[in-house]
Design brief:
Elements: E1 10-18, E2 22-25, H1 26-43, H2 45-50, H3 61-68, E3 72-75, H4 78-81, H5 101-117, E4 126-130, H6 141-149, E5 154-158, H7 164-178, E6 183-191, E7 209-218, E8 227-236, E9 242-244, H8 248-251, E10 264-266, H9 268-289, E11 299-302, H10 307-318, H11 331-334, H12 341-348, E12 358-365, E13 369-377
Length: 379
């Protein structure tokens, strides 16, 4: 819901992005998977011949690009992922006295956002770590980031899968509207490669690693520029069609360690069928509530899940095929980065827009969960 006229306006004042320096092309990923699958088929040759086990089907660059639109992905470690005898990234465990992997990524993205903001970190009143793939239950990554950046106030983690960033934006905007704080830092660190089953042909190509950061500030103290948040809406509907059972409860027993069903799994066709109409209707309805014509939106920054989903949602919302650049796609370079995807799209593709232009930051994913954040460019 939009805030009342008497409430402080929330503004997206700055954003930041941390991109790992390693990337994996589709061709590299396919070569590793096919080598592993060929060896696995050889190991199970007797069962395959007896008809008690199906042979693994090779992957291909063509299959990946048609299914997803993804051409490459950034990762923290490509060596382990591309080792057919491993197929898991090398991410050494750190001591409790060291900055955790997620916090380190988040701090780097936050530092870029703070530099763009031009104000000291001490003016931040709250830190939110909104992400899918949390490194641990507690202490909260947000509090670790808060300490690393020298921020007072309070901090906490929130996980709404791929919609975490839009849920975080609404939470931050609500803090601003209530007068709780004057500025909020939201970070979205995602180490998706640590949760992905690289031995599953149907999903081994989906995810990449990245971190984003957003500073949300009260409009009455914000510098010129930035984006006024016009309204936010959230929605959740329970579904098992996207699930990640990773965690200490499910992996405590030795026989549970590394089992495929403890990693990311999804039923892609069901997700597509369920989520596309739900999100499209939510966007149009929310726009109407705010007095906006969805067909007049200048930019869509959607969750970067799948190019086919994004293109269909774009057509349903705009009532036509989007013009180049209207429906931002960064999947080809970054792949699906869970909660960070819509923020990456916004961070990389908004500078050229004019004051008064209205756009939509939207996410959708496991839960099911979905969030819409309509924004207007400020002078």
């Amino acid at each position: 819901m939009p805030v009342s006229a008497s409430s402080p306006t929330a503004v997206i004042a700055a954003t930041g992005l941390f991109t790992p320096d390693q990337s994996i092309s589709n061709a590299e990923l396919v070569e590793a998977y096919n080598t592993w699958a060929e060896r696995e088929n050889a190991r199970q040759a007797d069962e395959i011949a007896a008809g008690t086990r199906e042979a693994l089907t090779p992957s291909s660059v063509e299959f990946i690009e048609k299914a997803s639109g993804i051409k490459s992905r950034f990762v923290l470690d490509k060596t382990g992922v591309l080792d057919p005898e491993r197929m898991v990234p090398h991410l050494p465990e750190r001591s409790n006295d060291e900055l955790s992997i997620l916090a380190e990524m988040a701090v780097k993205a936050a530092q870029e956002a703070l530099a763009a903001w031009g104000k000291p970190a001490s003016e931040i009143g709250a830190v939110l770590c909104a992400a899918s793939n949390m490194q641990r239950p507690y202490p909260a990554m947000a509090i670790e980031v808060q300490q690393a950046l020298g921020i007072e106030g309070f901090a906490f983690d929130m996980n709404v899968a791929c919609s975490s960033a839009t849920f975080g934006l609404k939470t931050a905007a609500d803090f601003i509207a209530s007068g709780s704080v004057k500025a909020v830092l939201m970070v979205n660190p995602e180490v998706c490669s640590a949760h992905l089953n690289f031995k599953d042909r149907d999903s081994h190509f989906i995810f990449g690693d990245v971190a984003t950061a957003v500073i949300i500030e009260a409009g009455d103290q914000a510098a010129p520029g930035g984006w006024e948040i016009l309204g936010t809406r959230l929605k959740t509907v329970f579904s098992n069609n996207i699930r990640n059972n990773f965690g200490f409860l499910n992996n405590a027993a030795p026989e549970g360690i590394g089992k495929p069903d403890k990693l990311f799994v999804q039923q892609g066709r069901k997700v597509f069928k369920d989520v596309v109409p739900m999100v499209s209707e939510m966007i149009v309805d929310h726009a109407g509530e705010l007095g906006l014509d969805p067909k007049g939106l200048k930019r869509l920054w959607l969750h970067q899940a799948n190019i086919n989903m994004n293109e269909m949602i774009g057509r349903k919302v705009l009532g036509r095929d989007p013009e180049p650049g209207e429906n931002v796609i960064i999947l080809d370079d970054y792949a699906n980065t869970s909660s960070a995807g819509s923020v990456i799209a916004f961070h990389l593709h908004q500078e050229e827009m004019a004051p008064g232009d209205v756009g939509l930051i939207c996410s959708f994913g496991a839960g099911y969960s979905a969030g819409t954040v309509f924004v207007r460019k400020r002078a």
